[in-house]
Amino acid sequence: MVIEQDVPSTQDDEALLRSVGLRVTAPRLATLAALTARPHASADQLVADVRARLGSVSVQAVYDVLHALNSRGLVQHIEPAGHPARYERRHGDNHHHVVCRTCGAVGDVDCATGHAPCLIPSNDHGFTIDTAEVLYWGTCPSCRTAD
């Protein structure tokens, strides 16, 4: 089940950037808007989306924006094995992901236990655990139909 999030306005995104000490720039706003429109986007998809919104913008500029947003906790990235890193605005709620082995589609899955961390390891090796990353792998409905 995916938790519905309100779609932020440009003013909300401007305030969000300022709240974490980032300057408001057109590439940052365009990247946030692209991530709202396309959750779990790859960097290549985001470059195309940001270019569609702004015109000319370098690949490096989008990567720099993603790094800044991720380091300030405004986006998170996941890296399913064998697939490019994906970025999303949903963060901080310890949700997990389901990934299609065939096409790489990604979906959100809420934590089964309802609190973080969702998985308590049998041996934490002295670590203080604050997040558990779970990837469920399978075949999406579109790929099952195509078989």
Automatic annotation (TrEMBL):
Main localization of the protein described in the UniProt heading: cytoplasm
Keyword Nuclease: no
CDD domains registered for this protein in UniProt: Fur_like (cd07153)
Gene3D superfamilies: 3.30.1490.190, Winged helix-like DNA-binding domain superfamily/Winged helix DNA-binding domain
Compartments, as annotated in UniProt: Cytoplasm
Coiled-coil blocks: none
One Pfam family of this chain: FUR
Keywords for the protein's UniProt record, in alphabetical order: Cytoplasm, DNA-binding, Iron, Metal-binding, Repressor, Transcription, Transcription regulation, Zinc
Residues spanning the signal sequence: none
Family label: Belongs to the Fur family.
Designated name of the protein: Transcriptional repressor
Organism: Flavimobilis rhizosphaerae
